[in-house]
Write a structure and sequence with these properties.
Layout (H helix, E strand, L loop, with lengths): L1 H15 L7 E2 L5 E4 L4 E4 L7 E12 L5 E12 L3 E7 L4 E9 L2 E3 L1 E7 L4 E10 L2 E12 L6 E6 L5 E6 L20 E9 L3 E4 L3 E7 L4 E6 L12 E4 L2 E7 L8 E7 L8 H18 L7 E7 L6 E2 L4 E5 L12 H17 L6 E3 L5 H19 L5 H16 L15 H6 L3 H18 L1 H15 L2 E3 L1 H15 L5 H9 L5 E7 L5 E8 L20 E3 L1 E3 L2 E2 L4 E3 L5 E5 L7 E3 L8 E3 L2 H12 L7 H16 L5 H8 L8 H22 L1 H15 L11 H16 L3 H17 L13 H8 L5 H13 L3 H10 L6 H12 L6 H13 L4 H10 L1 H8 L4 H11 L5 H13 L7 H31 L4
Parallel strand pairs: 4-14, 20-21, 21-23, 24-25, 26-34
Antiparallel strand pairs: 1-2, 2-3, 4-5, 5-11, 6-10, 7-8, 7-11, 9-10, 12-13, 14-17, 15-18, 16-17, 19-20, 22-23, 26-27, 27-32, 28-31, 29-30, 29-33
Bound molecules: ligand BES and zinc ion.
Zinc ion (ZN) binds next to helix 3 and helix 4.
Length: 918
């Protein structure tokens, strides 16, 4: 009888896949699906009254054919009476659906896959009472179609492995499930693997039984703790591992941390393993909450769409984000790996143990992990000055994005998979982290830690919204500021986009200042609609520094107040607002105050910290761009760099000069180059091109300075680079290959290739094809995009499309590299437009990387003609998928660029002309 039913239903599914025309989308985005006797209304969201409690999942991936078979049994509890059940599925071939109540089968009349909302609808001929049911579904799928969901990754020597990546909405591609973060359930997972392979999942293995004459094994894992679908993970591979014990210092039991890598890459896991151990121990102490699982694994996977994902107990990484070869990795490579490891580990508690209710509050996950990664590294590697680097790594770039009308608020309503994917963006990550840093700034470090710890304890294994985090911080906040409302204050930052510009004016008394606020927009002509509850005004914490040092207290600037007064202690004749740029806002001063700040900078005032200097640079150029201060002031402030010797301000300056140089384009940037050469020269002369042993931050400074000197064409630097490069390249023809010091490789390869011939390029291409280290490959791929000769770039673009040369995971980066080279921008723009359909087929419209490609190509466009081309392209392909917001951002950027050229170019060129000799 069972077989009969299965067959019947199977026939139905092949015939009954509902296509778009069967139903209508109403204005709220939900679907009205008319059934014979009743009207069923379905939407992207599942009913909150039908909840899974337990999954029993069996998966049999075939590493040779690239197919998998699965069976899932889901225990559910329904709290509503319905004659249907709907849950998620995508790209799966469903072969059987059965539903039981207390072991008694309930007849399934039919089941339909509703592709548009990625769901399966199971119908019954009677109404089901409230209660407990079990759904059993057999299915199979293809592992080779994408790099999300359950997929096959290709290794050397025709070997393969399988891995999974589900966040945010791809668990449904591996097994039918209730694929929303709020549906936490426990899991019993069983994987079948070849006997010589290992199978890994979130939990520890509890049994392994041979089958198929001992060729394969059935591995079962312990029942998981309650978790969201997006955190489930399955890997089958032939890797090896190293392990360490995590010392929990009595907060829970000690447990084992393992790092997995391919057998020939085992020497590359020590760095991540060491950071992993120390960061985990830091988090246990910080959160005061035991690690919730009995084991923790980390693994690098050769085909990987993003950087890393925090699957609970089994963190997966892109190789470049995990593997460090001490012989080839640069300090920057190591810092990036450390940041990624620290980020994912922060999620083990924040995100995994306590999860956002819905993706609207994604920032709770990503903003928090992005902030915690900095705190953890600051604690375990204090010499890296990670908190100063927060400005250049995290905050400055998002202050640009968020100064446009195309930005969005941190808490953002989303419904579809495209909308969900799209908010994994710099607002959720970077603004989220910056706003948390500001909150910690005014509440105090220990108060912040306690609030977070209370939150994790209170909501463990549960789901939350932003208010829940704030409610745990509130008692500590109230202690400091009994008259203020933390919910209201934070709402002004998280529930509307943008941020304020504070304008400082002199008050009536010598030491008094008057401060006003206004939304900061890079386009001075942009009209900010008053469409938020807070009218684009913010509740701003103000701190300041004067010659007497930093202020002790915070001055609050409520959104509803027109202005605030600030009285600085006697004796100082200058003031700088927003200490260490902890507040998420910018500040403008009267011209004479700017002059005084410039004097302080030039005099190397001990009162201005590294972050303060970086902040002043970043603000003044943003204000000049927005036509709030004249470029004269910004450029003259930058001249202090002749005496600057710290990394973070130079990193800030380098990105300012890069963006100016892009704006001026090739022909006009000569004077800018000469100016920057003069600034960089004093410090350049103190650096060595020889092998040196420096601390991490000194290495970053050195690489920054040498790279900037080369980029602005300082003759000595250019000559040294070309020379080192050619010696290295030519040594590949000999038995004695010269190596370039690890910290200089990216720079020497890249700028060494600027004037490359076809022959040199071919040589480098062959070196690339033979290279096995992922980080080294990235440096070479970057350098291959450097030549000024467009015909070379065209060849590269063509070769890159072939997956045998460049893995799909790296292709869009290569396209980005080529388009960033002014000789390649037009070429790429043309290619992407003609190839768009193919690109969509390969990466899908749900790829935020494909979406981000558009702004990255068009960022430097500054003519109405280019703008028109963009508009035409978007009209031709109106469906943007997850790239919708990127398109809007790109258009706004180009419109701003056009205005910038009209209004500012002349004055910048003028100033540079007059300052060729400092
Ligand atoms: N949760 C994300 C992984 C992720 C990214 C899922 C995008 C879905 C879409 C993970 O914690 C993460 O943020 N990874 C970053 C790297 C991290 C160091 C910022 C990534 O993959 O880019
Ligand atoms: Zn994250």
């Amino acid at each position: 009888m069972y077989t009969c039913l299965t067959l019947r239903v199977r026939n139905l599914i092949t015939r009954n896949i509902i296509t778009k025309s069967f139903y209508r989308i109403n204005y709220s985005g939900s679907l009205n699906l008319t059934m014979e006797s009743s009207k069923i209304k379905l939407s992207e969201r599942l009913s909150s009254l039908v909840r899974p409690t337990h999954y029993n999942l069996f998966l049999r991936p075939d590493l040779k054919t690239g197919h998998f078979e699965g069976k899932v049994k889901i225990d559910i509890t329904t709290k509503e009476e319905k004659n249907y059940i709907n849950l998620h599925t995508k790209f799966l071939d469903i072969t059987s659906v059965k539903v039981f109540k207390n072991d008694e089968e309930i007849e399934v009349v039919k089941y339909n896959e509703i592709k548009q909302i990625e769901q399966i609808l199971i119908n019954f001929d009677k109404t089901l009472d409230r209660g407990v049911y079990k759904i059993e579904i057999d299915f199979n799928g293809d592992l080779t179609q994408s790099f999300v969901g359950f997929y096959l990754s290709r290794l050397n020597n025709n070997r393969t492995m399988v891995a999974s990546k589900f966040e945010p909405t791809y668990a449904r591609q591996a097994f039918p499930c209730f694929d929303e973060p709020d549906f936490k359930a426990t899991y019993d997972i069983t994987l079948v693997k070849p006997v010589s392979y290992v199978a890994l999942s979130n939990m520890n293995e509890i049994s392994s039984e041979p089958e198929d004459n001992g060729k394969t094994e059935i591995v079962t894992f312990a029942t998981s703790v309650p978790m969201s679908t997006y955190l489930a993970c399955f890997v089958v591979c032939d890797f090896d591992f190293k392990q360490n014990e995590i010392n929990t210092n009595g907060i829970g039991n000690n447990f084992i941390l393992r790092s997995f890598a391919q057998k020939d890459q085992m020497h590359k896991i020590n760095f991540a393993q060491d950071i992993g151990k120390r960061a985990t121990e830091f988090y246990i102490k910080y959160y005061e909450v035991p690690f919730p699982l009995p084991k923790l694994d980390m693994i690098a996977i050769p085909d990987y769409v993003s950087g890393a994902t925090e699957h609970w107990g089994l963190i997966t990484y892109r190789e470049t984000s995990f593997l460090v070869d001490e012989a080839t990795a640069s300090s920057i490579n190591k810092i990036n790996v450390a940041n990624t490891v620290a980020h994912e580990l922060a999620h083990m508690w924040f995100g995994n143990l306590v999860t956002m209710k819905w993706w609207d509050d994604l920032w709770l996950n990503e903003g928090f992990a992005s902030y915690m990664q900095a705190k953890a590294l600051n604690a375990i590697e204090p010499s890296w000055t990670t908190m100063d680097q927060f400005l250049t790594k995290t905050m400055h770039s998002v202050l640009v994005t968020d100064a446009k009308l195309s930005s969005h608020s941190i808490v953002q309503t989303v419904a579809t998979p495209d909308e969900i994917t799209a908010i994994f963006d710099s607002i959720s990550y970077n603004k989220g982290a910056s706003v948390l840093r500001m909150l910690e700034g005014f509440i105090g470090e220990e108060n912040f830690r306690r609030g977070v710890s209370d939150y994790l304890k209170k909501y463990k294994y549960g789901n939350t919204v932003t208010q829940d985090l704030l409610s745990c911080l509130e008692p500590y906040f109230r202690k400091e500021y009994p008259d203020l409302d933390i919910f209201y204050i934070m709402d002004t930052w998280t529930r509307q986009m943008g941020y304020p510009l504070l304008t400082v004016e002199k008050g009536d008394d010598v030491n008094q200042y008057v401060i006003t606020q206004k939304r900061f927009l890079l386009d001075p002509e942009a009209i900010s609609p008053n469409d938020t509850e807070f009218k684009y005004r913010w509740f701003v914490p103000i701190t300041y520094t004067s010659s007497n040092g930093p202020s002790k207290n915070i001055t609050w600037f409520p959104d509803a107040k027109e202005k605030v007064h600030l009285t600085v202690e006697e004796g100082g004749n200058w003031v700088k607002i927003n200490n260490n740029q902890v507040g998420y806002y910018r500040v403008n001063y009267p011209l004479d105050l700017w002059q005084k700040l410039i004097e302080q900078l030039k005099a190397k005032s001990a009162q201005l910290s590294i972050s303060d200097r970086s902040h002043l640079l970043d603000d003044v150029f943003a204000l000049a761009e927005a036509r709030v201060v004249p470029y004269d002031i910004a450029l003259s402030l930058s001249s202090y760099l002749r005496v600057e010797e710290d990394y973070v301000p130079w990193e800030t300056a380098a990105s300012i000069f890069k963006s100016l140089s892009d704006r001026l384009a090739n022909s006009l940037s000569d004077n800018l180059n000469i100016y920057v050469q003069q600034l960089v020269k004093p410090l350049y002369e103190k650096q060595s091109w020889q092998k040196t042993k420096l601390g991490v931050i000194e290495s970053l400074l050195r690489t920054r300075i040498l790279a900037l000197a080369t980029r602005c064409q300082l003759p000595d630097a250019e000559a040294k680079v070309r020379n080192m490069f050619l010696t290295w390249l030519n040594s590949h023809d000999t038995d004695n290959i010269v190596t370039i010091e690890t910290d200089l490789r990216d720079l020497v390869y890249y700028y060494g290739m600027k004037s490359a011939t076809h022959q040199e390029w071919d040589k480098l291409w062959n070196i690339y094809l033979k290279e096995e280290d992922a980080q080294e490959q990235t440096k070479l791929r970057h350098a291959l995009a450097a030549p000024r000769d467009t015909s070379i770039l065209r060849k590269y673009l063509t070769l890159a499309w072939d997956e045998k040369n460049i893995r799909s995971q790296d292709y869009l980066n290569v396209v980005g590299y080529i388009s960033n080279n002014p000789s390649g921008t037009a070429l790429v723009w043309e290619d992407v437009r003609t190839r768009w359909t193919e690109l969509v087929n390969r990466f899908t419209l749900n790829s935020r990387y494909l979406g981000n490609l558009i702004p990255s190509i068009t960022d430097s466009f500054n003519t109405p003609l280019k703008l028109k081309e963009m508009e035409e392209f978007f009209e031709q392909y109106p469906e943007a998928g997850a790239g919708e917001a990127s398109r809007r951002r790109a258009l706004e950027t180009v419109r701003n660029n056009i205005k910038w050229t009209d209004h500012n170019q002349a004055s910048v060129l003028d100033w540079l002309n007059n300052h060729q000799q400092l």
